[in-house]
Amino acid sequence: MDEIEVVVAHKERTTLRVGDVFLKIDAVPGRLDAEVEAMALAPVPTAPVLWHKPQVLAIGALPGKALGRLGEPSPASKAAWAATGAAVRRLHEAPLPPRPGRDVSDLPRQIDEECAWLASSGLVSPDVVARNREIAQAVLRPWKPVFVHGDLQITHVFTDNDEVTGILDWSEGAQGDAHHDLAILTLGHPERLDDLLAGYGTDVDREVIHAWWSTRSLLATRWLAEHGFDPAAPGCEIDVLKAAM
């Protein structure tokens, strides 16, 4: 008999694995509905939907392996990263989905609040907080919305034989900033940015990608700490903040 593996678990969401079936349970009404809709619209491979009930989603496993994990060198080849870039480009050039995505008008206030918390937390020095706050300002500029994944972590992209076999976790799939997807995918792996852009294209603003690295790390650190994760683990958010110095 297959054992039940807890893939991720916190107050908002839990994902379990039994053999080749992943069961996602979400506390937020409608979020899994939006995820299924985004998967259906995305012009890239996604995991097969086995069945879907309100706040519960069963999907099948993907062939291949994830691009990597935070805190570890990515085992994927340059070609696999380039193929990922090409897939992300197809997504960003697809027709806009109906979901508007997150309201970013409140982003300056959020950055201010998280910087204040970080500076008093002792996790990093005030100088590190101030430097990343300065870098983060570059995300506060006009941008054209595209179809984004919204949470394109390195563990969410699977490849096999240098081809993308699927992209997981579309709960944030919506209209958004293309640079955010590129930044989240290379968070903690800046050495793979050139490989990614070899497939995506170089018509991007690297300063904005760097700004999203800082912004993501500033905004996520407290949430991770309060939900049982360790933002100070090697290669994770705290290291990303310190690397900006």
Automatic annotation (TrEMBL):
<dbReference type="Pfam" id="PF01636">
    <property type="entry name" value="APH"/>
</dbReference>
<feature type="domain" description="Aminoglycoside phosphotransferase">
    <location>
        <begin position="45"/>
        <end position="204"/>
    </location>
</feature>
<dbReference type="InterPro" id="IPR002575">
    <property type="entry name" value="Aminoglycoside_PTrfase"/>
</dbReference>
<protein>
    <submittedName>
        <fullName>Aminoglycoside phosphotransferase</fullName>
    </submittedName>
</protein>
<dbReference type="InterPro" id="IPR051678">
    <property type="entry name" value="AGP_Transferase"/>
</dbReference>
<dbReference type="InterPro" id="IPR011009">
    <property type="entry name" value="Kinase-like_dom_sf"/>
</dbReference>
